[in-house]
Amino acid sequence: MTKQQTWSDRFETSLHPVIAVFNASIGFDIELIEYDLTGSTAHAKMLGHTGIITPEEAETLINGLAQIRQEYRDGNFNPGVDQEDVHFAVERRLTEIVGDVGKKLHTARSRNDQVGTDTRLYLRDQIQQIQGLLRDWQQALLNHAEKHIETLIPGYTHLQRAQPISLAHHLMAYCQMAQRDWERLEQIYDRTNISPLGCGALAGTTFPIDRHFSAKELGFTSVYENSLDGVSDRDFAIEFLCASSLIMVHLSRISEEMILWASQEFSFITLKDNCSTGSSIMPQKKNPDIPELVRGKTGRVFGHLQALLTIMKGLPLAYNKDLQEDKEGIFDTVNTVKGCLSAMTILLSEGLEFRTSRLEEAVNEDFSNATDVADYLASKGVPFREAYNLVGKVVKTSLAVGKLLKDLTLEEWQQLHPAFESDIYDAIAPKQVVSARNSYGGTGFEQIKIAISNLKRKMFNNGQ
Fold it and tell me: What is the pTM of this model?
């Protein structure tokens, strides 16, 4: 440790070296340095604006902070563990540059409201970046959807063949999930965009500060109404981790489907070489590493959410050192979500192809049109439950003789029920089965076109 002490003369000795390392956060909160410099610059302007320091002193502080920013960007400012955290590191370097006036920067401010401000500035920026990546992901899904409106794929419930659907309809389900993810982040942005600067350690300050001035400088829409709440609130961070967990849930779900689709048993997609790997001993293999990694990384984001909830659940007001533990989870979540969104967008845009001929075979080799036979009878006046039971028997009989419904003769149909006519074959043809489901939000081709148009309008109007 350096001889210069972080704390007041209340302390006679420096920290034990092991405790100093244990206590320090500079190893990870250096991530906040640009935001700390931005927040400190606004604070210096406010101090000058209110007359707490002279305009000349404020200008000196602002110029010194700008120099530190440049030094950091040039790789010439690399504080170590002796600096404890990024906030003290900046203040000490500022004092080295501008002299004793640098010691005035912390007037009317506590590290508690300072770190809260930095975290919100950081997360506000990252939320917007993740929203941009969500838009890229949506666009990749939409591009395939628009090409595959009339491409059919088996629809599943309980991972059993249920009804044929449009591949575009399947992909659009993920587009809608991504839209909700985008909208959730937009709401969380608003609750993140509140300034705690000026709350002090917990009780405000005796200095005549102007919290609204510094909030405006930093682009915050409002300030915390309660100083205790301002320094201890991490609801916005928990909400961000919740939203991030849901993004990962959605990415993991489509990852699982891609892994299945790429298997020989499904063979619905072909993975390209630029987005897959091989085996060290089995030369024939092509592995779906990207979706597998996304599926695996989902757990670490869940873990960060659980960790922060656990940290917060027993903290008395106001600030406690436990809150230092919020940052690594937030930083890792941001990096994980951004990396997964980017990788999955590349995979969908450049790394796979849908095997349309195989998909066409798949929807013609099962009994997923059985519901349409029941609907056909119901449209002829047969009570649906009666029709449902009748078709169940038809399927059972067909399975016993190795036939599909399309293979039954008209005579066989009419032996089952006199309401069957020759148009039954059109009614159970896969494309007709899909096209006929034209209820709002359904898989009918016209409904999919409407859904794509509606979603594009939302995306263009930023969620509105």
Answer: 0.93
